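Researcher: Here's a chain I'd like modeled. Treat it as a single chain, no partners, no ligands.
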Amino acid sequence: NEYKSYLRMKPSAPVDSLLTLCIKALNKDNSQIPLYNLSESFYLYILKHAFLENCSGFIRHILMDIDVFIKLSYTKDSSRILHLCVYLLNEKGISIPMIFNSSILKGGESARSVEDLIQVGHFFVDCGYFEAGEVTLRHAATLAEKEREHVLLLQALTLLLSANIANCDFVKAEETSSRTKRLFISEKAFPASGPLNLSGFYAEEAYRQYCLSHYGRANEWAVKALQQVDTTVDVPTTITVLRRASKVFIDTKSFERAEILAKHSVALAKRYYGTEHIVYGETLLDYGFCLLHMDHVTLAVEVYERALIIHQKTVGPNSIKSAIAHEDLSYASYVNDYNDGDYSDSLLHSSLSLYIIEKKLRSDHLLNASSSRLRALILEELAYVEHNADYRSELLLEAENLHLKSLKLCRSTLGEDNLQTAKHYGNLGRLYQTMCLVKPAEKMHKKSIKIKERLLGDENYELALSLGHLASLYNYDMKKYTEALPLYLKSVEITLKLYGPGFSGLEYDYRGLMNIYENTGQIEKYYQYSQLLVEWQINRERTHVKTISSEVFSGETSTCSPTHDVIAQVLGTC
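Model: Modeled as a single isolated chain. Structure tokens:
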């Protein structure tokens, strides 16, 4: 029948290949014809065509064969095809991760090798199916410990810790971390097997401590991870170590070290995986994070845009990982557009991120908090310039509800003494200031400052930011100039020490000080900071000549420095 319809086509009509016709026919008939003993490359070839034709039935028929799925999960160069096929089925209500783990439970852990379970679990986490990855990797760790496979056990536990953190399950992350330390550091359960390289585990432990706002410990673990990287460590693990250490160093304000590691991880990922792989996209997100915190906001937006495209093309536009990329781009756009007041791009990406997360994850998942917080920030800015009083009140009320929801989720997951919790208090303080609720605003800002001082000390930019916000409240809303002045001066002192005279945030502090001196009749001080504001504008122009180096986006990777030289350079500055 397909052949007859083909013959009746007009000569100008597009003609399907014989392979496409076969795939369509099998998909239409929901055929269960077995496809045994094909090569990985041919499986991927027909899966690619099936995906392009949206033949989910045919894809399901192939991937429901667990042995075939395992075999294909090992194909690094074509993982994008498998990621997208799993994504397509998931969008149609067919969860390959759930089917796979159900098969393991029915057949017992011994039904699959430890290597296969590790590979598939890693694949699930890469796709953004964090809970499924946790289940698979937990089975792998149990089986590896039972069989005394110490190398595989370490690998499984390290990946499991990564999955726990990605899923924001810090209770399980603590359990996994403690189990790994007990087996491989404290008790050394495998003393006869020779030394093991723990760089991957050290890197994930550094990231766990970072997420918990234990920055001193995070820095110690990150340095230990870098020190363990040698020629025995594979490229994927090396990339992970560089990524985790870079992020930790950003929040300890070691910007030069962070940028070196972030850029090198991008170069390594591009050389090892190519530019159409989720890991390359993840390294770009980390590099964008680095640029954003170094005050290169426009460049950060550019990198985040590239990362989002890669995420959408590799794991699907409605995947959790694409939602995270949307959120990162939204925040960078929000910061970038702060002066001109056009938040349309930021609002778009924020809305898409929140839509995907609310659709895919449970309502109490921590990722809901960060997306809700970002949307609330944007709504507050839109309300600030809104002339219609009723609509303005509506926007502010929605923003307040989102902030309160985010704060509740953050406190329940991370606790009170966490930087994210402090940020939520600070965001509420700013919102209440916009709503002219000065006492609640003051209370929230003071809570934020107290937590940040306890966690970060008295010379951190996050603290400077909160000091500036409280100073703004005292200055413009409460007219408490005496209370505002030392807060501004402390904020300026910290910012100059960390970032220099061209940092963007100095503008608001300088203008705030000018307002105080003008209203208190201190004309000389007023003109002093007027001149500093002019100098700031000149310095600002000088700091924005930075461009993204060719090694990040170009196809050339031959100039990538040896990893041991890069790490030696970074460790030399520790």
